[in-house]
Amino acid sequence: MSTTELTEWAYPLAESLLAEPLPRRWAHSQGVAQRARTIALILGKDADLMEAAAVLHDIGYAPDLAKTGFHPLDGARYLRDVAHADERVARLVAHHSCAWMEAEARGLREELEGEFPQAPPHLADALCYCDMNTTPDGTPTNPVDRVNEIAGRYGPDSLIGTFIRRAEPEILASTARVVERLAAAKRQPM
Fold it and tell me: What is the secondary structure of the chain as a DSSP string?
């Protein structure tokens, strides 16, 4: 499958899983994919891969896919086992936005890392940037407000609230690395 075919395949799949049962999650996923398009300059040949992973990153929330309650793992397993997706997409979905920390809190880290090797760091940073700069409704935001929104939605003492606060320094560092790469790329002569 060519990279263009990858995005053409990813959008209808994500829509079929999210649009009806979880319209807000579908709006978020579309917004994350839009953020991916805005950083294509630093992704080069991986731009379509990132856009596909971005639109698919939250499919593990779909009611038919939620098996463990840990959406990165549920989504990645579906992509691997049912959709027979490009393994790079499954790896990005499995590890998006510091998922290893939440997996650890759930007792699933060994399972996650055993089934899905980490994505290359520059791609993991890019997907984290896209996710953490997008509101639940799909509009642009910043990672500080996004982390605060997640912690507020789930509650500070919940598993997710605790995880997102623990992950916050890495989320901010990850997004800063993407911003730095974008700035450097824009300074390059054409």
Answer: --HHHHHHHHHHHHHHHHTTT-HHHHHHHHHHHHHHHHTHHHHGGGHHHHHHHHHHTTGGGSTTT-SSS-HHHHHHHHHHHTS---HHHHHHHHTTTTHHHHHHHHT-HHHHHHHSPPPPHHHHHHHHHHHHTB-TTS-B--HHHHHHHHHHHH-TTSHHHHHHHHHHHHHHHHHHHHHHHHHHHHHS--
